[in-house]
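Field reference: sequence -> structure
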Amino acid sequence: TYDNEEVKTIREESGIGQFKQVFNFQKFPFDKQVLKLKITSGKNSKENINKSEVHFITPEKGAYLGLENYLNNVSDNYLKEWTVTSIDIESDEIVNENYYDKYLNKTHSYNENSINLVLNIKRNSAHYIYKIIVPVFLILSIAWFVLWIPTEKLDARLTTSIVALLSLIAYNFVFSDDIPKLNYLTALDEYILLSYIFCAMPTF
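Structure field:
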């Protein structure tokens, strides 16, 4: 369309997309993540063309209003295990000083404008608190209650300690599928590891 001697291109798409992104789970299950969806124009500066020739993408006001409605309408949130804390649209520029152009068969500087749809999300941790953290703490408390059993009742002390330790090991298999399997320790992994140590101490 032409408006005041300006050319405007209108494009509309709809649908549901699935995207993958690498998360940092070190603070799991109390972690916060940033989802970033980068939208590029596909138009970039060529060799010997200055940066002003880059096509810039400017979102309309309706985009911000739509995100605001999405943030306030919880039923539209497909991230059921997460709470969307904030949404923003930010402009960005992709710069590559050594871009290889297969058509020119040479490298040159590359500039392209993009806009990023940024979603800040926070994990809903109530499930892990009530079904993992609290039960593990109760088992650990039972293991330490042996200190209130008279010292002459050694069999009762040892039985209580070992049963609590075995219960903790068995319960670990129950919620093992709810914990991400990673090559580093998360906050929940450290909590469970410490619970094993403190549960074994009364037995020793």
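Note: Helices lie at 61-72, 126-144, 154-174, 187-203.
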